[in-house]
Each structure stands twice: as structure tokens, then as C-alpha cells.
Amino acid sequence: MSFRDYVRKVDPYVPGEQPRSSSVIKLNTNENPYPPSPEVLKAMEGVSLDSLKLYPDPDCTQLRHAIAENFGVKDDQVFVGVGTDDVLAMAFMTFFNSGKPILFPDISYAFYEVWANMLGIPYEKKPLTEEFRINAEDYAGENGGIVFPNPNAPTSILEPASFIEGILRKNRDSLVIIDEAYIDFGGESVIPLVDRYDNLLVTQTFSKSRSLAGMRIGFAIGSPELIGYMMSVRNSYNSYTMNRTALAAGVAAIQDTEYFEKTRKAVIRTRQHAVNRLRELGFTGPAPAGNFLFTAHETVPAKEIFSKLKDRGIYVRYFSKPRIDNYLRITVGTDREMEKLYEALASILQ
Ligand code: PMP
Description:
Layout: E1 25-26, H1 38-45, H2 61-71, E2 78-81, H3 83-95, E3 102-105, H4 111-119, E4 123-126, E5 146-149, H5 161-169, E6 176-179, E7 200-205, E8 218-221, H6 224-234, H7 244-255, H8 257-280, E9 283-284, E10 292-297, H9 302-311, E11 314-315, E12 317-318, E13 328-331, H10 335-349
Parallel strand pairs: 1-11, 3-4, 5-6, 6-7
Antiparallel strand pairs: 2-8, 7-8, 9-10, 10-13, 12-13
The chain binds 4'-deoxy-4'-aminopyridoxal-5'-phosphate.
Residues 30, 83-85, 109, 149, 153, 179, 181, 205, 207, 213, 218 line the site of 4'-deoxy-4'-aminopyridoxal-5'-phosphate (PMP).
């Protein structure tokens, strides 16, 4: 036997392409087309070189406080991590240990399955309906936990808070994680429900509506009990996940609510326009609630459009997976980027 027989062999998550060239129009990984608040740069400049010789605050006190203030919860109800990916992985490790299958939709954020496989957590994927909706009844039986994004990805379909509350009521003994990565683009957050449901954990990210994908900041909000369990697991793994620059940048980003409102509304406006323009070009798809559209053309296969767009330097996302292999996921860019997209599509579809 060699060490190779004992390697943990995993199927990793495959992120969207990050092309080197900056001339590419990048509509493939749901980043924000606008830069972060200018306050972020000031805050980063405020981090002295000398301070970097010291470890950062393991409790992330200021960032947790700023997030808590923004959402009207207590500091001990906030967990922060290196993007939601880190936060969600910690939550899986902390809560999904019953041996019973956890549940998530068949079409959803692909990382859930990757973490479950890596951590040896049994799971069942519940098929979305024909219209790509989550069927609440699928989440009413015994389970080891539930996780899904709202709005869902890659469909961009939003469920109302009342729908989530229905699932919470039927799962008093299971932990339910609602991944609100895209909630700021038009949805109602269920963060206000955490005080009534001790089985609810809500995650959000700075990568989308706060334009900080490159800084890697995500957070979870839940009861102090849930957050306490997560902190203990994190501190048994890596106490210093958040670096000083990220902590400072995060505080500045969440405090600049004016900038946040301005950019998030700009994305929503561009998205509404995109729905109409794409319809005129023969595309259909569900009404989008995230900063991306999930759309299929009535005659031309998605794969073909995807590669022809790429040839023209426009990157969108294509998943060659059952049920969604005729759809494109298109991130909402700036108005200028989107005009280039419509032009390219018109020429491809001619
Ligand atoms: N959840 C969903 C549904 C996502 O699409 C993403 C972004 N790829 C994430 C979580 C992770 O975001 P981040 O780690 O950048 O916070």
C-alpha cells in the first residue's frame, strides 16, 4: 500500500473561467460590474504596514459589529468567513452530522454537493419543478438539514419569505440554511426570522452586491447559539481566516449604504432592460431576481451561442448538465457591456 491509496480523492467545484485579458466582457461569474465603494480603498490604506506583523483579531470584532448594526442583530449573531464558501463549508461541518441525508435542489449551487461529498455527509437532491421552482413538499420529510439559495442559482428565481417560513415551520428539528448570496438584487431577506426560528441560518456575501469578490468576505446570521457552535468549529480549524485588510475593507463596504443602494439599483435597472432586449432577440427564461439571467433561445442551442460569444470576447456561463444544458447564465454587466452583448447576440442569431 502506498500513501496514494489513502488520499482523499474528491471531485472539486469548478468555478467559472477567470480570463487573464482585461479586454474580455466578463458576464460569467456573477461579479458586480461596478467597483466597490471608494471608502473601501481609504480603509485599506488605513491598514499600516507595521500592523501586518501582528495576527488579525480572531474574533473579527469590528466587522461583526458593523454587519450586526446593518442588520439590526447582536454582534454574537454574526459569523464571518473567507467568502460564503468558507462560511457554508463551516456550517456544513458544524451542523450536518446526524447521518441523515441533507436536502438541496437538483439544480442549485454546485458547491453543496462538493462539500457533502468531501465531508461524507449523505444527501438527496430534490428535483425542481418543470418551471425550475422549489417544491416545498420535498422538504417536509425527515432530513439531516436543508440548504438552498434564495434567489436560487443558476435560475435566478426568488421565493418569498413566506415560502421559507413554511419550510422552517415543517423542520423545527433540522437546521435550515438559506444562502442569500443574491438577495440584495430584489428579494426580501429572511434575516428578520432568525429571532423566531432557532433552526435558521442565513448566509450572505460581500462578493455580489458589495462588489468585493476579490476580497473574499461572507457572513452568516443566526441565533447566538448557532453562531457559537460555528465559532468553536472554526477555532478548531483556523482561528485567523480573515486578514486585516479584508476586515477593514468589509467594515467600510457595509457602512457605505448610499453607495450600496446606488450600485444595486443600477444593476436591477440594467437587468430589467436586459430581460426586454433578450426577449426581443428570441430568448425566454424565468423572471430574474439575482444579478444574472437564466435564459434559453427559442431556436439556437445555448452551447452554440456560448462558444460564439466567447469567440467575440464575451464570456457567459454554460452548464452542460441535464435539464439546463440549453440555458445560459448571463451576469448583468454595465449598460455598455450589455449593449455589446445584445449586438453580438443579434449578429450570432442572424
Ligand atoms: N452561494 C451562491 C449561490 C453563489 O452563487 C456563490 C458565488 N459563486 C456563493 C455562494 C459563494 O460566494 P462567495 O464565496 O464569493 O461569498
